[in-house]
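Sample pair:
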Amino acid sequence: MHLFLCAGILILTILAYYILGRAFCIRCGCRPVIPETVCLGFFLYYAVFQALAVPMILTKQKLHILGITWAAVLAVLLAGAVYLILQENKRSRPAYDSGARQKYGKINHAMQAGRSRKQEERRIRDAGLWLLTALMGCAIFCECASAVLMQRNIGWDFAYYIGNMATSVATDTMYVYDGSSGLLRNTMELRYALSSFYMNTACISQATGISALVLQKYVYGILCVLLTNAIVYSFAMKVFRGDCKKTAVLVTITIVMTIFWDVYDTSGQFLLLRNYEAKAYCANVVVPMTGYLLYRLWTGIGEKSSWAGLFLTAFASVAVSMSSLVIVPVMIVIMLLAHMAVEKQLDFAVIRRGCFCLLPNVCYMAVFLCYTKGWLVIRI
């Protein structure tokens, strides 16, 4: 029964990501492919959740307070996003006055219907595209099965992260008890408390009664695989300039290589063996998404939507995984230095925007440095 509930939660989660991502794209004035929209919604979700959760974690609030507050905030966000989408759809519809409608309506309707029929017939005739899409879908399903149903990595990390979530649900606290022993901590470990990724699962577990272990392994394990392939698909569509056939082939080849190239020290093996962990999301979602957005900026340095997406990804990167703390800023700095080296000039507009994207991680690094030096101690 819980597995069916997990399937429903997974579907609703992806739908929520799409709605949030679509609203974000409308505000940025861009229309990316659906997989990219879902990924942007994922980062928007965790950016807002992080802004709400971290102050509550550091002030030692109860888990149920975070859950109730987040449910209310998310409902408002989704309602606003749906309203924005409906308004955009209404504006995109062609409007004619009554005279023009009477004079040209039938002709335009006939022409549009004719074009639509031809496009539909061409799409149906293209059996190759359907076949490649079906193969890609089967490959994604097999990868989900390999990553989740054949999960074989059970170690200390597994016990600790799942223990943190289960203990939080049982005690209605957040990072107050140790995930391994269940004992009360003396001080809060900001190494974990600065990221709200696992507390999101704990909130859902507390609200639904489903074990955090089941939620993390099945819902977020599958979600990691789907988001990874969504980024590969978006990247390929950009590189191949909208060629769906080449994109489907590339995604399928990537999946086959991931499944059969059984080398542990790769991001792909993190995807297959430890997909429930924040580290897997860092290796397979955060870093590829950052690289994809940097590629978009490299090919169109003035695109405001790409800069907005990069800032959103950087802002939410620590929320998804503390492993992103240094990796994402380094990637952005490398892109800025490479751009200046190629252009052989200082583009202050690019530098200013790049530094703005670095700000969230720099602030987190400053807080974490104070913690490691012993200057910032939160006693329990």
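Residues 63-92 form the longest helix (30 residues).
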